[in-house]
Amino acid sequence: MSHTAHIRSHRKPRRSASTTVAMRAGVAGGVLSTLAVAGASGSASAAEPVTQTLELPTLTAEMAAQVAQSADATQQAAANYELQAERDAAAAKAAKEAKADLKEAKAKAAAKKKAAEEARKEAAARAARDAERTTLTATSDTGSSDTGSSSASTGTSTATGSAAAIVSFVKAQVGAAYVSGATGPSAYDCSGLVQAAYKQVGVSLPRVSQDQSVAGTQVSLDSLQPGDILYWGGAGSAYHVGVYVGDGMFVGAQNSSTGVVEKPLSYDPPSGAVRVL
Length: 277
Hints:
Blueprint: E1 15-24, E2 34-41, H1 61-154, H2 158-172, E3 177-178, E4 187-188, H3 190-199, H4 209-212, E5 217-219, E6 229-232, E7 240-246, E8 249-255, E9 259-264, E10 272-275
Parallel strand pairs: 3-4
Antiparallel strand pairs: 1-2, 5-10, 6-7, 6-10, 7-8, 8-9
Helix pairs in contact: 2-3
């Protein structure tokens, strides 16, 4: 035996190149996780193992259930919000469509009402024109027979005498004011002046331009005679009237700026004319 065999070696025990890592983890019953690291030497007299314990948070079954329940509640709330948004959008669309339908129905009803009112007015105007024509015919016949007897002594025809009176009247109104709806004696509108002029010779004319433009016999602008009624616009839909006074002149209540004026036909060429006398 060697003389050194009984002497304990003074060298530190060599650590093995291999290291063992063991982990015990418990997640149920509140057991703590333990991590143990041990080093072992290859010699018979191994060094004492070194153990270190770390505490890690433990996820219990109850906490996991609560997390899952919270996730389900959040998902359900999101689904409810989405459903409510879809319902609100559908309600808004339905309200908008109902509003549009109501507006269209009101417009159609108003159009029908307007058409019915216009038809009623047209029928009334037509009846009034027929009545006025009847009155004018009767008046003209009476005037012709009354003045015909005097024409033999005066040598003046009835038409000339009545026309002269009308011309004289409208010329006397030149300078008077224009007022819409006025029929004299100090102010006139266009049809009010014509009506007042014919009233001087006993002829009752309709009040408005549209009716006056069809109150007599239509005549050509090339064959006008003093006293003829001139109109602007269509026959039956005229917007202005005046009186032809001869020599290419007419008198009319033009507007609020000019009042009653005497002007040549070229100043404002008329659309047509009617002869009542």
